[in-house]
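Holo prediction — histidyl-adenosine monophosphate.
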Amino acid sequence: MITKPKGTYDILPDESRSWAKLEDTIRKICKLYNYKEIRTPIFESFDVFHRDQNDTSDMVTKETYDFKDRSDRQITLRPEGTAGVARAFVENKLYVDNPVSKLFYMGPMFRYERPQKGRNRQFNQFGVEALGSDSPLIDAEVISLGASLIRALGLKDIKVKINSLGDEESRNSYRDVLVKHFSSHVDDLCEDCKVRLEKNPLRILDCKVDRDKDFFKTAPKINDYLNKESKERFDAVLEALDGMDLQYEVDYNLVRGLDYYCHTVFELEANIPEFGAGNVLGAGGRYDKLISDLGGPKTPSVGMAFGLERLLLANSLSGKKLVNEDTIHAYFIALGEKAAKETTKIMNVCRIGGLSCDMDYLSGSLKSQFKKADKNNAMFTLILGDNELEEFKINIKDNRTDEQETISLYDVYPYIVNKLNKAALGACAGCDKKEK
Ligand code: HAM
């Protein structure tokens, strides 16, 4: 048997409705914040993600799926959305018509990581990118959009962790003191951190291996090295979050795992103990140089991405149902070949009229067909046997009330529609009075 590759999974029919509902919720929230959809290729030129020889992020150095196509072009499966969106922004000159582009995307990403709960090799991200504005208010807007999404999934306990990496000047002065600090503990650093010490010492703070060592706790903190401008900018972001009543926790060790960030960085967590390592639902930050690194004009930008698998996992652990049970309008039980043929005609009429229907194409026993009607949560079960067929009649059961009737084959569609309309009217108090 051929099986799926490690770190991938199938979304089966039972789960796909939750995915559709989540995607629908995301689209509605993006509309509220006026972010417009962009769809970029799943594979890009290698250089889109491997821009900088000095990049120390695990994602770029260890996790990308890189290959040569049949014409010897170096290709990378996208490990994240931001760089591809930035490439599309520059290539399509989106900056010409709009000084600020507010974009969102959803789709599969690929990282060669060790698979575990909430961590896959093919996973799906929803991301937003606001390109063209330097305002601290838009950093707060992006975080607020993320919090709205988490809330819309019924998760109340949201934790926003936030930090500022400052501008280049601030990072350079912080870099110097960090190098000094970690150089005196170089023998205790893991192999990756030894490389980071040379190339990007800030990223040492993100190390999962060295994190609990004592010399980590005594490392200098970035906020002591932010220059006046960076500090004021960070305060303005926090003030905007306060204004929206969004709770946050400033975490001076938060540096994030990607090298393109400056100023604001943040993570949104769900406070769900069973979640373990995959606790971070979404994360992002400001990246003011990425667009110009890709050949575009100077474009200060900020964005964020969520793992859709993690959002669904958090939602199911919270016990909140994203979708109601799957139902269909009518399930037909046909007893005999003639009845089955007639049933396909009636279903055709019903489907054209907008009713969802199904029947048993395996011609199972009466008992097994009833079971299937049940499994499909049919609102109505219809039984057509030879006797009924001779009289051009069909037996119909309303599964919500257990009422049963025998009606003309011609009446199936209007009968069901009429019952559904009555139920809808009954659900509306004002209409209910009219009915009486
Ligand atoms: P990231 O932190 O690498 O940031 O990923 C964002 C989110 O994607 C994570 O918080 C997590 O929910 C999900 N995720 C990442 N890796 C996996 C995986 N292997 N399996 C399942 N879910 C995963 C970025 O990707 C940046 N592009 C975010 C951003 C947008 N920054 C600015 N704009």
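READOUT: Residues 80-82, 111, 113, 118-120, 123, 125, 127, 129, 257-258, 280-285, 287, 303-307, 309-310 surround histidyl-adenosine monophosphate (CB under 6 Å).
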